[in-house]
Each structure stands twice: as structure tokens, then as C-alpha cells.
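ugh finaly. both done.
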Amino acid sequence: MRTHRSVALAALVAGALLLTGCTAQSQDEQRPTPTATQTPAPVVAGDGSLHLMTVLDMAGKTAAVSQAQVAGVELAVRELDEQGGVLGAPVVVVHRSTSTDAAAIVKELAERSIDVVLWAATGDIPEEIAGVGGATTVVRIGPADWKPDEASSARLLSADPGADPLIGGGEAYDTTIRVALAATEADNDSGSAIAEAITAVSSGAFSCVSFGECAAALADDTSIVYAGMTGSGGLAQATPEPEPSPTKSTKK
């Protein structure tokens, strides 16, 4: 079994600039223009516990799909905790609606130390939430186009008997498990670490379908691609980036 490797550096951050200096020259010589270069920013350290928040359309025209997605996330969290949690700690999850004021959600993200916000595959992400960064990242759940079979439906209903229909539940389940695997791969539960490691658990050579199977492969230094309940892993994209371009939210 391997020791989880730490993630040292995250993606380059545009805003951190170094100016390249130049040696003293005579007044007649033209000084070269300083060159702006990007410096890597360190991955934010996690607090040892994976904290999730779903922000879904709980009152609009896609409310039924959103309820199924809540069931999928709840099922994943329950099964993760039954296996000892993520990084040895229980997973914490709260559910919120897209009708909630974005500023209130951002405040709660900080208060609850939320690492990952789970968002639907479509729909604008308010810039206040998309721009939080650092300890928190936004991951889109994949499109709800997989139909659960009888066994999967029973599992989803065990987490939320009120969910009907169950379209979207499998994708939400898989997205949650993939986030947990990214935290396991990074040995770090922070959003910035998960954002970097989620590609690593989505593009390897060994296909695995459960958290236990995938985590065991990671412990043996095997590169994995998580297929999960749906066969596609449930993610809208390998690297969680807000899409489309975020727009300002308005109070409702």
C-alpha cells in the first residue's frame, strides 16, 4: 500500500506576477520592458473532513431531477461513511436551492468550510459563487440522461424515498464518489486539491466502478478512470470549471 502523495502546487494563478529586473544601463541605452510571469500558487490545505454542498433547482421546472440528484449524493455519502469516510473522516453534506441568494450561499460556504459545491450540468453559476476559489471549488454534475435499473433505483430510493423519478440520481452519485476519490488521490480534502486531482482519477488506464475498488487501486499506485454506477462517472467535465460564463445573481 502506498502513502498518499501530497499535491504541492495547483494551477497557475493569473494575478500573481513577478517582474523581471534588468541591470543598470547608461541613459542612452534603452531599458528592456519588464516581463510579467505567472507564479504557481500552493494548493490550499484541507481540514481533514470533506464538506459538500449541493446547489440545485429545488423549486423550478427541474425540481424532480434535482430531488433525484439529492438522493444520489445522499446515497454516495452514506456508502462512503459506511466504508470509513474519506481520509478517515465522515463526509458532511448540506443541500441548498438555486433560489437562495448567492451572497448568502457564499457566506455559508465559509462558515461551513465547504470544499466542493455540486451544481447541475446546465445553468449559470453566479459569479459570487464561481469566484470563491481556494478552499472551495465548483463541480458540475453530468447531464441527467442515464436511466437507473431496478437495483440502482432501489439504492437511490433507500437514500430518499420521496425522489421520483430517479433520472439524475446516478450521475449525482457518481460525481460525489469521484470527488471523494480525488480527495483520496490528493490526500487533501480542500477544493483546490480536488480540482487538480479530479482529472487524475478520470483519465487513468484501470477502469473501476466503486469507491472501494478505486481507492484500493490508488493505494497501489494504479492510475484509474472511475466509471461508477452510470458507466461514465457522472461528471459533466473532467476538470471542474464554472460554465458557461458566470453571471451576476439577483435576489429572489
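ok and the 2nd:
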Amino acid sequence: MSGAKGRAGRLGRVLDDLRGRTGRRVIDLLRRQVASAREGAELACTAASGTVESTRARARMSVVEHEGDEARAELVRALSRTLATPLDREDLFRLSRSIDDVLDQLRDFVREADLFGLSDLSFAVEPLQAVIDGLDELEQALVKILGDPGSVMAALLATRKSQSRVRQLYQARLTALFAGRLEMDTLRERELLSRLDAVGRRLGESADALADAMLKRSH
């Protein structure tokens, strides 16, 4: 009896693959990861602007991170049971890991901002808004994979532009920071700026992972 159920389950997965349901499920889980990362970026931005106290932002970030981890774990389970995927399986793992890294870096930014206790975090607002914009473009790229694959690369280019914007803001602020008086808060701000730059790099790696996957798909 159990053997029959097992065969029926495998048959059901095959039918789902053929109907495209599994592909949609995989994309939806990646979009859930991006949504968690975006929420983390918004949370970091509210902390930087002073709208939310850094201690409260840090506590809320733990919940957001857990949601992102759940989506990633569910994606890994789905991929292990899926016979056919909309993109190369290895690239999907890489993309998922890169999105997870974005959220991890945002978590570390919020935690360090709380620990360092800087009175003014406004320097982080603009880079974080660029991260949010980039995540929005990445989400749009995911939406278009199944319905409009020809438009995916344009969205990914916009994601990379957001990453470049983060880097430009990081370099400009760092230059201004070291042109002034060197104090302990200067070093603390430098560490937070480096964390924001790391967020941008992870965002760029996410775009690269999806671009590589789309290139493989086109061949």
C-alpha cells in the first residue's frame, strides 16, 4: 500500500512539473525570500532615519530573518523533490543563497548600528533606499521569468545599477568622513558603511546568479 502511495506521489509531482506548477512554486519561494530581504532593508532604513529605535529594529529583524530562512528552507526542500526546474538547479541554489546573504548583511547592519550607538545614522538612508530599489527590480525579474523572459535582463541591469549606486554613495561618504577629524565615531561609521557596501555586493551577486541562469536557459 505504501509503495502504491509513493508511486502516486511521484506521478503527481511529474504531472505538476509538466503543468508548470512546480516552476511557479520555485519562483514564488524565491520571491518570498526577496520580500523578506526587502522588509529587512526597509527596517534598516527606518532605523537609520530615526523613525524606529535601533533596539526595536534589531528585535524585529530577528523575526524577518526567520521568515527569510523559512522560505529558503522550503525552497531547498522543493528543489530536492522537483524533477524539472524553470532554471538550472545549481543556479537556483546560488541565487537563493545570495538573497539570503543580502538579508544576513542587513541583519548585521541593524545589530551593529544598535551596538555602536551612533546618534546620527542618516548617512545610511540613501544607500538603503538604493538597496530597496534594487530588490524591487530583482523581484520584477523573477516575476518575468515564466511570462516574459525577454525582459528579465533589463530588470537585472536595473538591479546592478542599484548596487553601483550603493558603492558610489559608500565611496563618497567614506571620502568625506576621512577628510574630517578622526574620532571613535568615525571608525564606527566606517564599519557601518562597509556593511552597507557588503549589502550592495550581495545584491549584485544575486543579479549575477539569475543572469547566469537565464543565459544557460537561452542556449
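summary for the 2nd one i guess: Residues 6-19 have pLDDT under 50 and may be disordered.
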